[in-house]
Inverse folding.
C-alpha cells in the first residue's frame, strides 16, 4: 500500500509539473505565414477581376457539416443555407459591382492550435455602383478557420458593417 501511495504521489508531482509548464513560445515567422495564408484565401475568393467569384466564396467553407455564420442580425448554420446566402449576395449585389477590389484594413490572426486559427480584420470593397457612382462596401470579419486535409476553411464567422 505504501509503494502504491509513493507511486501515486510521484505521478501526481510529474503531472503537476508538466501541466504547469508554459506552452511553447509562438513562432513569429510561422504566425506571419499563417496570417498571409488566411488573408490570401479570402483575397483570392474575392478577386472580382476573374470569373467564378461566387464559387470561390463558397470554397472558403466546408462542403458539408455545420458552419455557423452570423451577419445582419441573422445566423445560419448549414452549408446549404450559407451557399444560398452567398448566391443571394452575388445575384443582388456582387455581380452589379464594376471595378470592385478587395482591400484589407488592420488584420489580426491568432493560432488556436496546429489546425485552427482565428482571423479578425476590417475590409472594404470599393467599386462603381450600377448608378455609375463610386460606392464602398465595408465591415469587420471574424472567421474561425480549421485545416481539413491541408486546406484552411471557415467553420464559424461573424461579419458586421458600420452603422448607417
Amino acid at each position: 500500500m505504501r509503494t502504491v501511495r509513493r507511486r501515486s504521489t510521484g505521478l501526481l508531482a510529474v503531472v503537476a509539473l508538466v501541466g504547469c509548464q508554459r506552452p511553447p513560445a509562438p513562432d513569429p515567422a510561422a504566425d506571419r505565414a499563417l496570417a498571409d495564408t488566411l488573408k490570401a484565401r479570402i483575397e483570392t475568393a474575392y478577386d472580382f477581376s476573374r470569373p467564378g467569384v461566387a464559387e470561390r466564396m463558397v470554397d472558403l467553407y466546408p462542403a458539408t457539416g455545420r458552419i455557423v455564420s452570423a451577419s445582419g442580425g441573422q445566423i445560419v448554420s448549414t452549408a446549404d443555407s450559407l451557399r444560398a446566402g452567398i448566391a443571394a449576395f452575388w445575384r443582388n449585389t456582387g455581380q452589379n459591382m464594376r471595378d470592385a477590389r478587395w482591400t484589407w484594413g488592420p488584420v489580426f490572426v491568432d493560432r488556436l492550435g496546429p489546425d485552427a486559427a482565428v482571423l479578425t480584420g476590417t475590409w472594404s470593397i470599393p467599386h462603381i455602383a450600377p448608378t455609375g457612382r463610386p460606392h464602398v462596401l465595408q465591415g469587420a470579419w471574424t472567421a474561425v478557420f480549421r485545416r481539413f486535409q491541408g486546406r484552411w476553411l471557415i467553420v464559424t464567422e461573424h461579419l458586421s458593417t458600420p452603422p448607417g
Observations:
- The chain has one domain: 26-160.
